[in-house]
Specification:
Blueprint: H1 7-19, H2 37-50, H3 52-68, H4 72-75, H5 77-94, H6 102-118, H7 125-146, H8 152-178, H9 184-203
Helix pairs in contact: 1-8, 2-8, 3-5, 3-6, 3-8, 3-9, 5-7, 5-8, 6-7, 6-9
């Protein structure tokens, strides 16, 4: 758990999270058909915010990592693993690789990541990173397989990667702040995310 005794430390955490942006689906809405470069970049930035599957998974990873790992260096490992493999999945999807079970595993990611957060599960760091990376691959593939061909598609990828990192950072800052109070809001949020994933799986969408 993080130990953040004062508000200035919280501000430091927020600044570090924002600086990390400089480093380098089940309910996915349809991608626009136009390929204008600025529009594709803007659509990429907004895309993770338009479907609950991606948004909830990213927030769960950020909050969970901040709550259960005791240092900034260790806590950032999971979001960075997710973001890196998300990009790999998107590129392979764009290349036309046939990837099975994309939607079921996106649904499963909500269930599993929600449970990890609700249970405040402190897995060994390599295992935790591997877990989120597996799910990240399928989130990325879902994006990549739906993209139109052409150079503008890479701007869409750039946009959703920036948004993904920002969502992770928001989750990490929220998790860091919650350690100063009670962890029950994070546990409740995790239970809600897991329940949503379970409902989607049962519905078979």
């Amino acid at each position: 758990m993080f130990h953040l005794p004062t508000l200035p430390q919280h501000k430091k955490w927020a600044a570090l999270a924002l600086l990390s942006l400089a480093q380098p689906v089940l309910a996915h809405p349809g991608h626009p058909e136009h390929t204008d470069t600025l529009s594709m970049l803007a659509d990429g930035l907004l895309h993770p915010l338009t479907g609950p599957d991606h948004l909830l998974a990213m927030l769960a990873v950020g909050v969970w990592s901040a709550l259960v790992y005791p240092s900034i260096k260790r806590a950032t490992a999971l979001p960075l693993a997710f973001s890196t493999i998300l990009l790999l999945g998107a590129l392979l999807g764009m290349a036309g690789l046939s990837i099975p079970l994309v939607e079921p595993l996106i649904m499963a990611s909500l269930l599993v990541l929600g449970l990890m957060l609700a249970g405040m599960a402190k897995l060994p760091l390599p295992l935790g990173a591997a877990l989120v990376a597996v799910f990240a691959f399928f989130h990325g593939a879902a994006h990549g397989m739906e993209l139109p061909e052409g150079g503008a598609a890479f701007l869409f990828v750039l946009g959703f990667m920036v948004s993904t990192l920002l969502i992770h950072c928001i989750g990490m800052v929220a998790g860091a702040i919650l350690t100063q109070r009670h962890a029950w809001p994070a546990r409740l949020a995790g239970a809600g995310i897991a329940s949503y994933g379970a409902i989607l799986m049962l519905a078979g969408h």
